[in-house]
């Protein structure tokens, strides 16, 4: 099979799996506020898929499917939440620069880990800051009201942070193990192609 065609098949299968598993996981974890796989999978989608639009369709697809079961809310709030959960796709350049499977020395591993950790933390913080701004209308229009809003939001932020970290590390860790297995097989059978992210 031609490498480009093989990459396309892999991307179609992976896209389907990410959206289906992401939606199912978000629905099953509904009882844990803000502990969800969406941002973590968006990070991986941005890293892996050649097309930014395909990568963006992963978190949006997960949200559309899961919200059909969990419930919808005001369209303008949904658009902001969806946008913030899709934002990690924009970190693809940073991740591709730092997350490198070709250099698995101690220094290379530390570089990959720090890149993933930094992007995941940034995604969580941006989501917290922007989505909590949606709740400012519930508080007095003063600095004290703003502070109260964000302090109360910290209870949910810990779940956001944990969910983003857990699912980012599970996804990238699983990909790293798969790449290691493929590389091991490739040494024995050189014709096996290695699925890897390609620049747009």
Tell me about this structure.
The protein has helices at residues 3-28, 38-48, 52-70, 75-86, 92-98, 106-133, 143-188. By secondary structure, the protein is mainly alpha-helical. Helix 2 runs antiparallel to helix 3 (52-70), helix 3 (52-70) packs across helix 4 and helix 5 runs antiparallel to helix 6 (106-133). The chain is globular and about 65 Å long. The protein contains seven helices and no strands. The mean pLDDT is 87.
What layout of secondary structure does this protein have?
Elements: H1 3-28, H2 38-48, H3 52-70, H4 75-86, H5 92-98, H6 106-133, H7 143-188
Helix pairs in contact: 1-3, 2-3, 2-5, 2-7, 3-4, 4-6, 5-6, 6-7
Structural class estimated from helices and strands: mainly alpha
Largest sheet: none
| Broad CATH class | Mainly Alpha
Query: Rg from C-alpha positions?
Result: 18 Å
Distance between the termini: 22 Å
Shape: globular
**How much beta, percentage-wise?**
under 5%
Strands, count: 0
Supply the key terms:
about 200 residues; mainly alpha
Can you summarize this structure?
This protein has 200 residues and is mainly alpha-helical.
